[in-house]
Amino acid sequence: MTEHKQMQPPDYHRCLDTVFASPTACRELLERLAKTGEVDLRSKWSPWQGQEPPPHGYEVKRQVPAGVQLLMVEAKLAGERASFNRLWRELYDLMGVAPMQESNAELIVNIGGTLDRLRCRIAELEEAVAAKDDPDA
């Protein structure tokens, strides 16, 4: 296994270019920097001679170009949209309806009707069990 090498500034900057090229990696880096406090910098940051510590704290996003921030928001939106669509597909599968056969609104009405029928059926079964257990009725 090779030993870890301390990156020199040109390599360090190439690494940051790679991070900023990926909206997801950039978002993760910014969230980590936003959570970094002054104490963390003093205990963990070991800069090269004369190098300033990285920006940190809640204002770190102000230093990121607007285009990069837009890409980060778009990446987050794409992830949320994929999660949202996956949940709707699972709900369609659960209800036994082929996706796109019904709209989401129709599916919700269908689920409401199914829940009402199930509640009525549960009430009927509970009444039947109560009548069976209670000989006085």
Give a short summary of the structure.
With 137 residues, the chain is an all-alpha fold.
What would you note in describing this structure?
The chain has 137 residues and is mainly α. The chain has two domains: 9-99, no CATH class; 102-137. 68% of the residues lie in helices and 0% in strands. The protein has five helices and no strands. Helix 2 (23-35) packs across helix 4. The N and C termini lie far apart (81 Å). The model has no long low-confidence stretch (mean pLDDT 76).
Low-confidence stretches: none
Structural class: mainly alpha
What sequence of helices (H) and strands (E) makes up the elements?
HHHHH
Mean pLDDT: 76
Radius of gyration: 28 Å
Total strands: 0
How big a fraction of the residues is strand? Answer: under 5%
In DSSP terms (H or I, runs of 4 or more residues), the helix count works out at 5
- Percent of residues in helical segments? 55-70%
Number of domains as seen in the coordinates: 2
The first-to-last residue Cα distance is 81 Å
Major beta sheet, specifics? none
Rough shape?
Answer: elongated
